[in-house]
Specification:
363 residues; alpha/beta; Aspartate Aminotransferase, domain 2; Aspartate Aminotransferase, domain 1; 7-stranded mixed beta sheet; 3-stranded antiparallel beta sheet; 14 strands
Length: 363
């Protein structure tokens, strides 16, 4: 059993994927080939925004948006204490201070009720994360950002294809960024990412930043970096895109089956009204996590922990001075979360194997 079965996905779409890669190889347009612009246009339409700008990774996209907004030393950026390191990493890379807030106990997304207390005169932006495939409460977060004149950047690196009140993730704030890491709901065959916005000036600045700050050949007007999306990765994504809606529906069926069979036995993912999750992970919570994970491993069932430590306990952020007991919801989540196999090709028989093993070991 595989945690995420990329081999099954490749076999299902192999002719289209092979043809897309072969076309790039034959053209030798490996950098800024036409597939990049085509993907940007198609994904902008999918999300429902005016502009999409491809990047070499989701991390690069997050970094570039903050750079474009002029975030730097002396600034503060609010972000959840429970997420992958990249969300806070890009803030610190620019010399700004990550300001952590706790997460909602049901969704493990940023809890908007903590925002007002975290805002200071130095706050410039909020970076909520749409964790595990479900959008954060962006309506509430955007409202706080608007009241205080702050930018809001959705880290949608796990939620591409999700929606909130009928609007797609990455199109719900001033800007949104997603990742195309292979294991993501829409993944390529390496690293890749994309930024989305309705702000034409921001989009143009992002295009400049990803090309070493170049506004014309060898003319560098702003500080940038090499953040381009490879043509081959764009081609792979274009080949997969026609199947993406069906994969979202398949992920929902897998999640519904887990929910039905595990109801009442373990703490299950909560999807808020008005939200549709793409279930980048199906993550349960149990105080018996270590014993459960060990038992499943003995039976050949793969699991993962997303994530084993809240950000304020990461050594790199020890200088921020947070006590270990800060952010209690994030801390508890890090001790209890366990992600089960989740992908569109997961058979019911495989799910039954996972669930039966879980039910056997749970108290």
């Amino acid at each position: 059993m595989r945690f995420i079965d990329l081999q099954a996905q490749y076999r299902a779409y192999q002719p289209a994927i092979d043809a897309a890669i072969r076309a790039v190889l034959e053209s030798a347009s490996f950098i800024n080939g036409p597939q990049v612009a085509q993907l940007e246009a198609e994904l902008a339409r999918f999300v429902g925004v005016d502009h999409a700008v491809g990047f070499a990774s989701g991390t690069d996209g997050l970094l570039a948006v903050l750079m474009a907004w002029g975030i730097g030393p002396g600034d503060e950026v609010i972000t959840p204490a429970f997420t992958f390191i990249a969300t806070a990493e890009v803030i610190a890379l620019l010399g700004a201070k990550p300001v952590f807030v706790d997460v909602d106990p049901d969704t493990l997304n940023l809890d908007p009720s903590h925002l007002e207390a975290a805002i200071t005169a130095r706050t410039r932006a909020i970076v909520p994360v749409s964790l595990y495939g479900q959008c954060a409460d962006l309506e509430a977060i955007n409202a706080v950002a608007a009241r205080h004149g702050l930018q809001c950047l959705e880290d949608g690196c796990q939620s591409f294809g999700a929606s909130q009140q009928g609007r797609r993730s990455c199109g719900l704030s001033a800007a949104g960024v997603t990742s195309f890491f292979p294991a993501k709901p829409l993944g390529c065959y390496g690293d890749g990412g994309m930024a989305f916005t309705n702000d034409g000036a921001l989009a143009e600045r992002l295009r400049v930043i990803r090309e070493h700050g170049q506004v014309a050949r060898y003319q560098h007007a702003v500080l940038g970096f090499n953040g381009r999306l490879d043509t081959i990765q764009a081609a792979v994504l274009l080949a997969k895109l026609p199947y993406f809606e069906a994969e979202i529906a398949a992920r929902q069926r897998v999640a519904d089956y887990y929910q039905t069979r595990l109801a009442g036995r373990v703490r299950l993912p909560v999807v808020l009204p008005g939200n549709q999750s793409v279930y980048a992970q199906f993550t349960i919570q149990t105080p018996h996590r270590d014993a459960v994970q060990h038992h499943l491993a003995l039976l050949g069932i793969p699991t993962a922990i997303h994530y084993p430590a809240p950000l304020h306990r990461q050594p790199i952020f020890s200088d921020l001075g947070h006590p270990e007991e800060a952010f209690p919801v994030a801390t508890q989540a890090a001790q209890e979360v366990l992600s089960l196999p989740m992908h569109p090709f997961l058979a019911t028989e495989e799910q039954d194997r996972v669930v039966d093993a879980l039910l056997h070991v749970l108290p």
